[in-house]
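hiii, so i know i said id send this last week but things got crazy w the move. better late than never?? heres the sequnce for the chain we talked about at the cafe, plus the structure i predicted for it. fair warning i was half asleep when i ran it
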Amino acid sequence: VLNPERTIYWMPPGYFIVLGTIFKLTGASLGIARTISLVMVLVGIMLIAYMLSRLRFALVSLLIAGFFFINSYFIMCGNIARMESLLLVIAFSSFVLLLRRHFWKGLALLAISPLIHFNGIYFMGAYIITVLLNNEIRRAIARPSRIDIAFLLLAIVAWLGYGWYVISDWSNFYHDMSYQFTRKSSRDIISYMFTPINIIFIALTIASLLYAIIRQLAVLPLLVLAVFLWLINRVGHEMWYEIFESMAYLFLTIGIIHIMYDIASRLSVNRFYTVRLLLPIITGAVMLYWGYQRHFIENMLHYPQQMSNSTMILPDNVRYITDTDIKRIKSTLEILPPRREPYTIQFQPRADAFFFLDLDTKRFRIVHPTFCTLKPDIYILHNSRYLPSWWIKHAREDMLAARVSYRHNSALLFSRDKTERWYFRIMTIGK
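okay and structure toks below
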């Protein structure tokens, strides 16, 4: 429970509707949530693979993409319960429809993408720009059929429903959205965007895009996407968005290989096939090395053991949580004296709550108080070797509220394997 007093509006509801619907059928669990993300990422990869299969160097493009698809950003996206995985499916389904000359269906599908995550707006921009710049796609647009109109009407109905939903509680919606945009606008976006490496990326992308426009190459949609995918991460600046920048580098790499082949073909006047291949091979190798340096391509010699993301590492022989850990925490909760209202419990990290969804709801309620006056009765904090060093700033507020010190092990419930420590603090017994 984020807020027992009102709805939280800081994210659009699309992903949660999909996840909640599946949970109604299967029951809620962390495993199911992660499986859903994994399936969606795999579907997204297949959609991207279809787009690449239409290019001149389809096999080469798919091989290069394979190295990107197994990087830490795709792996993380397929292992966490967030909106990006569903957004990938919606966005690239729309582009596949566009390439297959179903403009209106693709537009209708993409129109609902901001209801999954507001980053869908970037994909809408890429979609419209692609249509405007690609002569073949633009000329193929026909009048919408009845099915097309039905799709468009469904998208309009979805937006009308969301509009009614937020207008009925406008003050809280405005408060929550203001919080989100204030948090993001406080960052130094300009310095994050215009680093020396990023300036090179921008220059290469603009030059490649201009060439693809002039020559009307098949990689034009990928290069347009590269621009907007890069902007998602550089403007939004969230660790979850790194997957989009990873795809931007992938699409730029494939785009440049095709452009170099086109340039070499024109310069050699089709007389020297070796020359025509040599230029794209050399530039492709340089781009792949650059992708490796940017950690968009993993070190295959030590894969996956040394793969990391934001200093988070893969588990070794020490588990993050065990069945024994869960039983010990549950037994501690079960001996608490009964009372009229359920005990409210807050976990840190928040996602640890997924391991305790089967708690008796008549006695316990898991909460994550947000924009409300609710104070948890019980804090359960977990300090682990797998939590990155920067995580402490996210845990500090809960540590202070629970009067817990990781350094002095105050309120320590138990520890395991020297690094896994669980802290338990009861704030309120009565009620």
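btw Residues 70 and 298 are 8 Å apart (CA to CA). thought thatd interest u
miss u guys!!
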